[in-house]
Design brief:
199 residues, two-stranded antiparallel ribbon
Length: 199
């Protein structure tokens, strides 16, 4: 990992991303807006990451990812004239981003610098994701659904899209789903665009 990557986003950038998320949430026709905002604030959504890959393993990446995913969904919807509702696009992006909340933990490690000195640096590592009493860890799609369904009434099409998020499917099944579900197609393409941007 780049030794300076952990603090790639400064506090001001992270605060701006948080404010953007909250401003959008306040425009949504959903229930318990204050509870949703509180849940995001009380977890690590605004601070954590969504990946241990070096290029993504920095503080604030999770929230940044959600916003990038939302903007990519908007672009796809506009460019391909899919006719998808913008509120639903944001709900998908927020839910998929949140599926990574409380997954990674911050630790420290000693890193030898080029000049031979050692420095203690922060890094993310995979924490305990299974709750007491659970037999299996939910998939990211399941976590996304469980989170957002507390606040919004979802159509079957949106639920399908969430459950397909980063799911392991053979191509035949995937393309069959995309043929009948524009949200699932747009979500997969937007997620790919978000990751490829950093290649």
């Amino acid at each position: 990992m780049d030794i300076n990557n952990f603090n790639k986003l400064g506090k001001v950038e992270r605060a701006n991303n948080r404010n953007t998320i909250i401003d959008i949430i306040k425009t949504l026709p959903i229930e318990n807006v204050d509870t949703l905002i509180s849940e995001l604030d009380n977890g690590d959504f605004y601070f954590s990451t969504n990946s241990l890959m070096p290029k993504f393993a920095y503080a604030g990446r999770l929230c940044e990812y959600s916003l990038e995913l939302y903007h990519n969904l908007q672009k796809i919807n506009r460019d391909l004239s899919l006719g998808l509702e913008d509120n639903n696009l944001f709900l998908l992006a927020l839910a998929c981003g949140y599926s990574y909340a409380n997954v990674y933990t911050v630790g420290t490690k000693n890193v030898k610098l080029d000049n031979g000195d050692w420095e203690q640096l922060n890094y993310f590592y995979l924490g305990e994701t299974r709750q007491a009493g659970e037999y299996t860890t939910p998939t990211f799609g399941e976590k996304a659904y469980l989170f957002i369904s507390k606040y919004a009434s979802l159509s079957t099409e949106l639920i399908q899209a969430l459950f397909s998020y980063r799911a392991t499917m053979n191509n035949s099944l995937k393309y069959s789903l995309y043929a009948i579900n524009k949200y699932a197609y747009a979500l997969d393409l937007a997620d790919t665009m978000t990751m490829v941007k950093y290649e």
